[in-house]
Amino acid sequence: MSKVRVGVIGVGNMGRNHVRSYVALKHKCELVGVYDIDGELNQEIAESYGVKAFDSAQELMAEVDAVNIATPTTTHFEIAMQAVENGLHILIEKPITNLVEEAQSLLKAARQRDLLVQVGHIERFNPAIQALPEILKREDIVAIDVQRLGPYDPRISDTDVIQDLMIHDIDVVSSIVPGEITEVSAFARQVKSKEHVDYAVAHLLLDKEVIATLTSSRATNKKVRKMTITTLNSYIELDYLQRKIVVTRRGGLMADNKDYQRENELEEIYSSDEEPLKSQLAHFINSLENGTRPLINGSDGLEALKITKGIQRRVYGEDKFNSQTGQASQVRPAN
Q: Residue 186 in contact with residue 311, Cβ under 8 Å?
């Protein structure tokens, strides 16, 4: 069986990492080439990794079985639909598209052609996140608190912190507690960006009883990626960056003294050092080869986008949120 032929469209900060990872997976797939609207960058990345630099997305699509889209969010829909028209499978960076209606149209078109769509919610391939289901198997979750904080990056200028960063945790939390979100409240501040909010907090009520608090920031001078989960019996701390989980469990009663409880028991769990991006791309190739559903398929990406838009509406207010662009010109005051 021949290897899956893949092309990468968009080789900026994220896209070039996709190129590097596909080259490392050459035993599983063939990276045919790349295309970027920046011709100089396109040529530079192609030469660095020994692949072809295409002059257009259409030329690339004519020579591959699947495309990896890592362009700005506002271009996702147009490029992905072009890929569908060319009969290609798609891995598309998060968010799936800029608008919910775009995602719905894309997925309908892909289903009609029996094409696979995987969305790049990379945190689901973080080894620590993948270790969680076993830990939570016998736990009754009370609350989840997530912090995704970092300094301002002027290169991210086309979207707010909710769609840029918080969407990662929206997807992860939805996978931990699947089901209906019954209540949403959110607040945000514009700090350094000229057009978008940089600090946001959202409170979600999941499955009628689990409380989730998501905090995302592009205005914090320290990179923080942490999640804590309170259950009836444990307190679980997960560090995305260290890929480590610490579980604090309530101590049991001493056998000879029913009124005396032992100190809390600690368990530290270190997950593997496997790179999440490489795992994500290998999963994409395996899904194509085996005809299996990806861990995060198009429907999962659509659901994360719907929740993201709901939070944005709470932040900006329905009257200021533009459903045609998926953005707002002014944030609603926190009070």
A: yes
Residues linked to residue 120 through DSSP beta bridges, in sequence order: 93
Strand partners of residue 189:
199
Tell whether 323 and 206 lie within a shared domain: yes
List of residues 6+ apart from 72 with CB closer than 8 A:
10, 158
Chain-centre distance for alpha carbon 228: 18
Q: In Å, how far are 166, 176, 303 from 172, measured between CA atoms?
A: 10, 6, 12
**pLDDT tier, 254 (very low <50, low <70, confident <90, very high otherwise):** very low
- Domain harbouring 322, CATH code: 3.30.360.10
> Which residue carries 């509406």 as its tokens?
313
Q: Tell me which of 334 and 199 has the higher pLDDT.
A: 199
DSSP-derived pairing of the beta strands 29-35 and 52-53: parallel
Q: For residue 25, which of 83, 56, 66 has the smallest C-alpha distance? A: 66
Model confidence pLDDT, tens digit, residues 103-120 = 999 999 999 999 999 999
Using CA atoms, how far apart are residues 139 and 209, in angstroms rounded to an integer? 14
The H-or-E segment that residue 31 falls in is: strand 29-35
Mean pLDDT of 222-231: 97
In the chain the first and final C-alpha atoms are separated, in Å, by 61
The answer to whether 124 touches 175, Cβ cutoff 8 Å, is yes
Determine, yes or no, domain membership for 334. no
CA distances from 148 to 14, 76, 89, 165, 326 (A): 18, 24, 31, 7, 22
Q: Can you tell me whether residue 254 is helix, strand or coil?
A: strand
Are 159 and 248 in the same domain? yes
Q: How many domains does the structure of the chain reveal?
A: 2
Residue whose structure tokens are 């409380």: 211
- Chain-centroid distance of CA 158 in Å reads 17
Q: What is the number of alpha carbons within 13 Å of residue 12 lying toward its C-beta?
A: 11
The tokens describing 313, both together, are 């509406």
Q: For a pLDDT cut of 90, what percent of the chain falls above it? A: 80
